[in-house]
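Sample intake sheet
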Amino acid sequence: MTFFAPFRQLLAATMLLPLLLSACSKQQTLQGLFQKQTPHQFYARQLQQAGLSSRPAGRAWLAAAEQALRDSLVVRLPFAETGYFRPEQPRANSYRYEVQAGEQVHVSLTLAPGTTARVFVDAFEVAASGLRPLVSADTVVLDFRYPVESDGQHLLRVQPELLGAGKYTLRMWREPSLSTFPIPGRGDTAVGSFWGAPRDQGARRHEGIDIFAPRGTPVVAAAAGFITRTGETPLGGRVVWLADTEHGAHLYYAHLDRQLVQPGQRVRAGDTLGLVGNTGNARTTVPHLHFGIYRAGEGAIDPLPAVRRADALPTIPQGPDQRSELVRLRRPAPLRLRLDKTQNKRAPTLTTSLPLLVLGRQGQLLRVETPGGQQGYVAAQAVVRATGQPLRRIALKQPVELRAQPVATAAALAALPRQAAVLVLGQAQGFSLLRGPGGEQGWAII
């Protein structure tokens, strides 16, 4: 089923939806790791119990959910995009993005006024063994954060309920998972030596970051927890170990001039632990704090993503709202499957006669769908409105049936008589997309 599928195929389902939705109303709206059932899964089960999963509309909704997990658009955080849901076409949008251990991802989906559709948002980790669910939400909670446990890729799926309609704005950006920077008043610019830098002439690697500040500058707890160890070592000098009870990690503070806490002491984020110095093997360097993060069974991880400043809030794409419009390209161009400069070799080249449905906007790019159901991006300035600039205007030489898709076996939508004045909005696979005098629209061979 493509974006020209008939709306009437869904109408039979509407009689069952009120019962279905009332059954879902008490479902938890935000679920974290390892929950047995997400709101999306609960809703899918209700579709099956209502008998809708065996009907065309229900099958299309379930298929769209699965397709989104296999075929996602590659984006880069921070990211913002506008989009919309069409009631006549069950669909799910998905986005794949790079993440780093220690940071957290902030997801915010804003529904436009008048949008009443229930929306499901699910984040997954892309692993070699498949997709691992991370966190799920629905309409009541559409602004949430979740921590990143390991470097890699995540996938976010956004899908409205069956027959859901409305416009939305999606934002995603990165934030530090630790609430407080280890040295107050400092930030990324104070970091002078990074994770993985060679030490001892290459014999080992730097397992942390060095934050430079004057001797005696207070060093604080980056998270709430309790002190597990203090002492002095040849490498770290005067050190403090803090068990981060929120994230299940151990924070390591080294080269301190003084330690101001004791083992067993509970601390809150921002409490002073010691003072910046250059003890241990840092005695020949200027004063600084060596800050590290260790996880049980994993060892040291790069602490920078956990403390660096958050991304700037992604801005809402500017430009005319063309969502739900049909457009065509001014010149042939490939469909962009990624937002960066790399181009997927499988990307098709779009012709100037191919009609494209605008699903959303990201910066100066429009997210579009082809008649065959493939999604991607084209430049906003590279398109014309299909209804404003039809390929041609003709009077039909014979009666035609308008079909939902550019294939002979597609469902019939309407019939147009001989001599009917029609607009030819586009062409695909030997078919023409026609709009009749009464607003009828569909595919036919003319």
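Comment: Residues 3-16, 18-28 have pLDDT under 50 and may be disordered. The chain has four domains: 8-177, 188-307, 317-388, 392-444.
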